[in-house]
Amino acid sequence: MKISTKGRYALRVMVDLAANDTGEFISLRNVSTRQEITIKYLEQIIPLLNRAGFLKSTRGKDGGYRLAKPSRNYTVGGILRAVEGNLAPVACLEDKPNRCPRRADCSTLNVWAGLDKVINDYLDGIRLDDLAEREKNIDGFDYSI
To answer: In terms of pTM, does the model score above 0.85?
Structure first.
């Protein structure tokens, strides 16, 4: 499994929207500037996140995007699956139930199933709000003394 640039950037967009959430809509231009991702590329990613129900949008002078739900309700796994599709490490695990004609005789299926479980459990265990908090600290918003 290899996460594409689109998947990596989608995660960065979601983290940015969560870290900068004030309840107002955030323009693509602002996200583009902060994340150093072209608006043209963002325009390819945003519809995927919209279709998954992750974003709310509005048009006009104060238009932009914001999260549809609180950031704690999103996981890295959910975001990546919305953009990348299934995260299975091998094609035979993409369908549930497994339809591989060799599944009963495959000595390696358990290896791939175990890896699939580890990947999904790990990515589903990381919430967007945790990454947003880290983003705030990286950007210097940590005002602790």
So the answer is: yes
